[in-house]
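agent> step 3/5: call structure_predict on target 'GNAT family N-acetyltransferase' (Xenorhabdus nematophila).
agent> reason: downstream docking stage needs a structural representation; sequence fetched in step 2, passing through unchanged.
tool.input:
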Amino acid sequence: MDIYIDLYQKRWNYNHSEEQKKHLLEIYTELRDHIFGYVLLINSKPCAYDFVLWAESPKWISFDAINGGYDPEYAHLSVGSILMWVNIQQAKVLCQQGDKTMRYSLGNPTLEYKNRWCETFPLGKVLF
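tool.output (status=ok):
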């Protein structure tokens, strides 16, 4: 969890409060079995991390890239893009091994890089 907080803070210039850190620890603890992906290292030091959750059904595996961070010191190396590629490739392997359809969400396509990595599909809401 410290890796996520540190890299998120560096990318977005945002400091988490102690209360927010407590909630993040709860999330990481409760969802540990659903956390997916890698941490990218340079010289044994974390430089990029994506917080990705995954869930499996009989026919598909869903991956949701919630958020992430990277060290701006390495932005010239496109560490975020490299990590995104590694995580997507690993998700593809996992889906192929289980003969399942992959659903990999990057959320709302508000930033250009998201269009580089995915096909956009319309979503709807169900209201009760």
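agent> step 4/5: record observation. The chain has a mean pLDDT of 89.
agent> proceeding.
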